[in-house]
């Protein structure tokens, strides 16, 4: 493809992308293809001679479109959003054009320097404590995903504690042996509702994993007491906690762990690296009304959030900050002669290869820079406030029908988690007395332990009905919702943080929930 063919092809592609966005709301959000749908649509191998762009482009509609789940659709209220916006797509385009696996500063100084500046801007936007800024001993780096961010800091934490135990020993086999013995004792901790990536990181880092309870009685939050208890329990068994993954906005319910109280635990156990995973809800720190949540981070070691969830930047861009950048470089820097250069040797530049798992890296700062400049702080805050308000609206609709629904969690960060009552107006059966002040008169029912026969029967029926409603809505094709189960309670999650979210879609999904729930309950009568 030469330049003039590229001009023509890219114009046609952009036109098609714009058309796609303009018609997103009217497309069924979920793909209906069956597994294996694609192979029969394609030849057995690549073409012997090259094809024209129009021939290739026509297969987007024929081959690809039927198999897409439309994450950008305003009817996508599942998981957490994976936002994409036009300025961020432009960033991707330039990044592809300038492709350079810019692992060292020298490989493309702009890639490194823009990343450092943009991460400092973001640290300011999120009101992160000063210790995370690059002007001190900390700094930020863009990782591909929250999962990568967590495994990266876990390895840094592992090496930090091993060095603290063995750093004084003379190099040699004896030291190596002692380091191995220390590593074998290590255990990483994560909250009961921390994302599975914390446990996965422990598997990758070759350490044990233990879960810190976060029961519904604590609002699914890790408390200082439960963390302290778990650390002590591990120590009493001769295993050494060295990492704790806290969460700001758990995947199940958007719960926020007890950060302020955990500061004292961090001080009592300085060998435990405390990381805050705020993959989704961290975006809310751009709003002054949420910034108090970040103040305790000064006592913790690292923090990450995904620009590619709620922050208008397309996948992939997970921003990670550490308080001591040396912890990363001490663990991850290995410099064979072919990577040496005078700038790296001078110590005056950042080589982000030492802050991550891969060597090469993409120019991701560009798309974040474009998004920040296009929307400005005002635009980003307006998007966050609008989607939070839509979540509150949806929640108010749900609690307006206590005969049909019970809110188990939320509204929190544009997420509401609900169940369908097993029979109309039967919500409080077998449950505790409901306080009149509760916004949802049925909510207290779910604080029960469901231990009596009546309670467990109630829960079993509620689960059956909720699951049926959930499955019918998703198979209807108009909306895509996801579910989760906590302490045996099957729930439906509705998230309104999509960049295209609007009141009419939230009102409509509520209407569909009501119609479906009424249909299912009537059939059971
Ligand atoms: N952490 C939390 C709280 C999440 O909700 C998710 C995904 O939804 C992740 C981590 C994983 O994110 P990633 O796909 O960027 O690894």
Automatic annotation (TrEMBL):
Keywords: Decarboxylase, Lyase, Pyridoxal phosphate. GO terms for cellular component: cytoplasm. SUPFAM superfamilies: PLP-dependent transferases. It comes from the Eukaryota. It holds the Pfam family Pyridoxal_deC. The modification N6-(pyridoxal phosphate)lysine is found at residue 309. GO terms for biological process: amino acid metabolic process; carboxylic acid metabolic process. Its cofactor is pyridoxal 5'-phosphate. GO terms for molecular function: carboxy-lyase activity; pyridoxal phosphate binding. InterPro entries: Aromatic_deC, PyrdxlP-dep_de-COase, PyrdxlP-dep_Trfase, PyrdxlP-dep_Trfase_major, PyrdxlP-dep_Trfase_small, Pyridoxal-P_BS. Belongs to the group II decarboxylase family. This is Aromatic-L-amino-acid decarboxylase. It comes from Lophium mytilinum. The lineage of its organism: Eukaryota, Fungi, Dikarya, Ascomycota, Pezizomycotina.
């Amino acid at each position: 493809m030469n330049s003039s063919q590229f001009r023509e092809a890219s114009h046609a592609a952009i036109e098609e992308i714009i058309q796609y966005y303009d018609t997103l709301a009217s497309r069924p959000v979920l793909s209906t293809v069956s597994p294996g749908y694609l192979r029969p649509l394609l030849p057995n191998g690549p073409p012997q001679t090259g094809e024209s762009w129009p021939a290739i482009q026509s297969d987007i509609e024929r081959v690809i479109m039927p198999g897409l789940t439309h994450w950008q659709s305003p009817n996508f209220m599942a998981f957490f959003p994976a936002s994409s916006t036009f300025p961020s797509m432009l960033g991707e385009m330039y990044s592809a054009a300038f492709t350079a696996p810019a692992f060292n500063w020298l490989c493309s100084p702009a890639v490194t320097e823009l990343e450092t500046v943009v991460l400092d801007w973001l640290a300011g936007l999120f009101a992160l404590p000063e210790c995370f800024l690059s002007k001190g001993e900390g700094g930020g780096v863009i990782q591909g995903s929250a999962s990568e961010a967590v495994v990266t800091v876990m390895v840094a934490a592992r090496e930090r504690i091993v060095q603290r135990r063995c750093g004084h020993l003379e190099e040699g086999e004896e030291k190596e042996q002692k380091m191995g013995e220390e590593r074998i004792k290590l255990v990483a901790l994560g909250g009961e509702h921390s994302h599975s990536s914390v446990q996965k990181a422990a598997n990758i880092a070759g350490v044990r994993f233990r879960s810190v309870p976060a029961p519904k009685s604590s609002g699914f939050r890790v408390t200082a007491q439960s963390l302290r208890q778990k650390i002590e329990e591990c120590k009493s068994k001769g295993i050494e906690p060295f990492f704790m993954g806290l969460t700001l906005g758990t995947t199940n319910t958007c719960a926020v762990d007890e950060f302020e109280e955990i500061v004292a635990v961090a001080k009592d156990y300085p060998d435990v690296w405390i990381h805050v995973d705020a993959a989704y809800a961290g975006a809310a720190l751009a709003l002054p009304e949420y910034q108090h949540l970040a103040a305790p981070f000064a006592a913790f070691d690292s923090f990450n959030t995904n620009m590619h969830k709620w922050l208008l930047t397309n996948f992939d861009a997970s921003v990670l900050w550490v308080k001591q950048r040396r912890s990363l470089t001490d663990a991850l820097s290995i410099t064979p002669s072919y990577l040496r250069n005078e700038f790296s040797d001078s110590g005056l530049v950042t080589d982000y290869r030492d802050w991550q798992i891969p060597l090469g890296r993409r120019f991701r700062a560009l798309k974040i820079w474009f998004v920040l400049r296009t929307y400005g702080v005002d635009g980003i805050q307006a998007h966050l406030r609008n989607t939070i308000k839509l979540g509150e609206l949806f929640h108010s609709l749900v609690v307006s029908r206590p005969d049909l629904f019970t809110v188990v969690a939320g509204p929190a960060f544009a997420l509401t988690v609900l169940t369908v009552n097993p029979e109309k107006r039967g919500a409080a059966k077998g449950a505790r007395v409901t306080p009149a002040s509760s916004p949802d008169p049925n909510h207290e029912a779910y604080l029960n332990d469901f231990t009596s026969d009546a309670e467990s029967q109630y829960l079993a029926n509620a689960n059956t009905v909720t699951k049926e409603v959930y499955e019918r809505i998703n198979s209807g094709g108009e909306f895509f919702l996801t579910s989760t189960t906590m302490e045996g309670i099957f729930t439906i999650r509705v998230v309104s943080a999509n960049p295209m979210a609007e009141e009419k879609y939230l009102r409509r999904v509520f209407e569909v929930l009501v119609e479906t729930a009424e249909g299912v309950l009537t059939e059971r009568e």
